[in-house]
Amino acid sequence: MFTDSHCHLSFPELTEQLPAILQAMQEAQVDRALCICTTLEEFDAVHALARDHHQLWATVGVHPDNEGVQEPTLDDLLAGAARKKVVGIGETGLDYYRLNGRSVAEMEWQRERFRVHIRAARQTGLPLVIHTRSASDDTLAILREEGGFAGGASGPVSQGVFHCFTETAEVARAALDLGFYISFSGILTFRNAADLREVARFVPIDRILIETDSPYLAPVPHRGKTNNPSYVPHVARQIAEIKGLEVEAVAETTSRNFEQLFDRAV
Ligand SMILES: [Zn+2]
Ligand SMILES: [Zn+2]
Fold first, then answer.
1. CA separation (Å) from 134 to 6, 179, 243?
2. Global pTM?
3. How far is the CA of 220 from the centre of ligand 2 (A)?
4. Relative to the alpha carbon of 92, which ligand is closest?
5. Quick one: which ligand is closest to 9's CA?
6. What is the CA radius of gyration of the chain?
7. Exposed, middle or buried by CB within 10 Å (0-12, 13-18, 19+), for 104?
8. For the purposes of burial, counting CB atoms within 10 Å of the CB of 94, is it exposed (0-12), middle (13-18) or buried (19 or more)?
9. Is residue 85 classed as helix, strand or coil in its secondary structure?
10. Which ligand is nearest to the CA of 93?
11. How far is the CA of 95 from the centre of ligand 2 (A)?
12. Model pLDDT for residues 167-210, shown as the tens digit of each residue
């Protein structure tokens, strides 16, 4: 019934508890989760989760925050994308939150890495999983420049999702106009997230995905604990409250949205 569109089950604190998590997912009616890759070094483990478990799927990509790891080439990403049960490219994007004393101009390596991922998405037709933090202008500008998106330059239309969305309604509008989906995490349930709940009110239900981003960001009432995909119904419940819908309707619509975007994951 529920789909967790973004989790990190390959991270040790979750891998250690995998049988219990799969059991908890079943009990919570979370019948699908997308395992997100953050380094090429980690990709075999992410892929193995999807290969070995019918309800798990995988992406290939290198997170913008990861430095001192293998830099992905277009061929690396294409090779990963060719594997069974790999259904998306990412997570990728830009993160200017922790510059560690550097200027934005010095982050060109991050922008170049992002462009390589966009090219892989265009070549494979797979959707992009976008991470953006303190960098929404450049994220949108690069997506437009690299083209291929609705409203962008010519080329085959690819799509994607802005994951763990914490930006403004204006950024949401721009992402929607480019053909992207918006994914909300447990942050939506936090007491101090009233502004984000207003953004969720604005985004049409047929463009929303839900996620845990586990092991981080456990939703209320589990805030502060290690998160896992079985908690994603709490995000759906919050959206149901915001939109005046039944939680079953939110579960069904967000799962259908997921299948439309990640159309290999069915
Ligand atoms: Zn992220
Ligand atoms: Zn993530």
1. 20, 21, 27
2. 0.95
3. 19
4. 1
5. 2
6. 17
7. middle
8. buried
9. coil
10. 1
11. 12
12. 999 999 999 999 999 999 999 999 999 999 999 999 999 999 99
